Amino acid sequence: MFASVAWESVHTPATDGAPGGLISVVGKLVRSRKTRSSVPLVLEDNPAEVPDFGLDPPTLVHRNIEISIALIYVALGLWVFAETFTFRESVVTGEMIDETGLPRLIAVIFVAGGTIIAARILRVWRDAPTPYVSSDGGSADLTGYSVAVWRPWVYFGACCVWTVALPYVGFIVATAALLVAFLYLAEVRSVVKLTALPLGVPLVTWLLFDRVVGISLPVGAFEEFLSRFVPRLF
Amino acid sequence: METALTSVVEAFGILANPSVLLFLTIGMLWGILCGALPGLGNGIAIGVMVSLTYAMDPITAVSFLVSISVGTSFGNGLPAAALGIPGTPSAVLTAIEGYSLTKRGLGPLAIGTNWFACVFGQFISVPFFLLMVVPLASVTWIFLSPEQFALYFVGMAAIVGLAGKNIWKGVLAAGLGLAIGMVGMDTVTGIPRFVAMSELRGGIPILPTILGLVCVSELMRNMRQVYNWEDLIPSTAMALKFPGFRILGRSKRSVLMGGTLGTFVGAIPGLSGHAASVIAYNQARISSKKPEEFGRGSVEGLAANEAAQNSAQAGEMVPTLGLGIPGSDSMVLLMGALMLQGFVPGPQLMNIAPELLYATAAGLIGGALFLLLLGWPIGKLMLRVARIDRQVILPVAILMTLVGVYAFRRSAFDVFVMLVFGVIGYFMIRHGYPVIATAVALVLGPGFEEQLRAGLLLMDNDIWRFVTRPWTAAFLTIGVLLLVYGVRASIRERQRLGSMEIAAPVPVEDHV
């Protein structure tokens, strides 16, 4: 019963603007006991019964990606197994389990596990009504809010650019630019936040790491200028 | 007993150090904040702050990280009890009982019981923690490679408990951790394995990998959607007046029981605060004179659950420090931070560095004292702070993690490692592969292999001699039992999930 309520909470689009997902499922469940009179609850019928929290509703993911991950494991297993034959010969002799032992075991596990998961998806491939399969415990998004699949990847790209640019631009300038990009991506449009945070956070971080904790960060023209005024504490 | 008492005395000595006190306060505040904000857990709370420990001495670093754990445990019960929003799965029962009380106009009682159970759950857990970890640490002193391997085996078997709903995905995730740990020089023969580039000669750096898997992946997942925590929180204002010790004291029996059970359950590798809280809650219901209140706003249920959840933190530290087996994401990060300080995680850790035990006790005692003195006002404050801007907090958290990893060695390679494993972890989280299993296997893997091979060499490759040494046999038996229990639980979970899938009405569209 708990499951059906939780399931409904997750899979029914929110009409009141409230989101779904694990957190809101329980939040909704707790709050729904007055508002959702049409949904009978175990807790109402039998208050002594402890709800079964093992019954989180399954998150559904696209089977193409699920099977791709399984096949990546298979490929990784085959590569690891093949790679063990290229190891240099050991000077330690008489080992029952040598340096190839665990890698080969892992390789077998990868191939077996990946094949089993892939086979499970393929078994129901043709008969499945939709291309979605259960992720077996994968994290769900909150319902009622749009999902931007591209956003984590843009963050990832921005982080890579920051890492490469850091030694050339200096910590404060690079970090300020990164934070502006981060905040804009997070749909922050307040000019105050977009100005104050990128100015304040890198400066405080630089002072904390470079001046207080004593960990040097990449120096650009701006840091050189600041160094004249703020002495190192350690 | 004497060592346990010494540890308490030493802990108070550590707490007298102003810098430890300062960082303990920062750790507590940060932990409570992260606990109170839905979606930010212990892993992110510690992950973002690990970089600050580079320049600390080990004692301050450990006290600091432990205090973050204590703070998070307290913090995640606050929105659950007051607003019906559990910050983590282990606060689900708090949401049921606490929010039922709040809805009946008993918000102060709910928050007060939460605070009371957290504080005294912590205090109860400290002596049990010391009494369990000290004998373990003294026994491991005499262990040779076969016994050490058996201990690592217990840790690896416990990973099954972290495997999630699909045992194969759990095994594959753990296998990935072992595979990552194999990169670099083989510790027995010195032969390079899987070294595709010169930077990998010393192995894949562990802390960036763990931070990527545990912290960055979760932050990346969070960034898929834009909303504010305020949207999740009911806007009703609530006047919180301290209900008084006389009223709160009525739940002392539940707190005592929950605190004791929580420490012991938390000390079993593979079981977590969630398991501890459910077991304590059930026990409280069975022994309650008012079982009919459970599920409708039971103070006893709330107290037992919160006390167990908080004391389980100390319990988790027993295998981590006593045996070198981390059982949760926060413990893996603690291990990672210790490795940066030059310590080698494993069964001998406490014998080599007993000061880490004192520092842990200082973090637990200091955290409990902090909560006792300031927990109530800070708890009230955090309920307001929980409305702060998620769109700002998450980008800043990513930034701090990046800066922290870069700052350690000024290495762009470390940052790329973290980002790559962040992406891998992101897919794992989305598709039900438990990242914590990968992280634990990564920490335990190298020692597991090394001790197995060294032990076999020591026993002249005689497996029977290897496994029949008394301590080895005992630990291997425990490991096998954990394995059987974990597999059985996972299969049952899968069967229940299967029945739900059949009942599933309409599939939800997903994008990754």
Largest sheet of chain A: 2 strands, antiparallel
Overall geometry of chain A: flat
What is the helix/strand order of chain B? HHHHHHHHHEEHHHHHHHHHHHHHH
Order of helices and strands of chain A: HHHEHHEHHHH
Strand line-up in the sheet with most strands of chain A: 1-2
Average of the residue pLDDT scores of chain B: 83
Q: Could you give a short account of the major beta sheet of chain B?
A: 2 strands, antiparallel
> How is the quaternary structure best described?
heterodimer
How much helicity do the residues of chain B have?
Answer: over 70%
Low-confidence runs of chain B:
502-512
How many distinct helices of chain B? 23
Largest interface: A-B, 111 and 109 residues
Describe the strand arrangement of the main beta sheet of chain B, using strand numbers. 1-2
How far from one another are the termini of chain B?
A: 54 Å
How large a portion of the residues of chain A is in β-strands, by DSSP E? under 5%
Q: How far from one another are the termini of chain A? A: 61 Å
Polypeptide structure, described:
The complex is a heterodimer of chains A (234) and B (512). Helix content of chain A is 59%, strand content 3%. Chain A has 9 helices and 2 strands. Chain A has a two-stranded antiparallel sheet with strand order 1-2. The longest helix of chain A is centred in the middle third of the chain and has 23 residues, at 101-123. The radius of gyration of chain A is 27 Å and the shape is flat. The relative contact order of chain A is 0.10. By secondary structure, chain B is mostly helical. Chain B contains 23 helices and 2 strands. In chain B, a hairpin with a 6-residue loop joins β1 (184-185) and β2. Chains A and B meet through α1, α2, β1, α4 and α5 of A and α6, α9, β2, α14 and α19 of B.
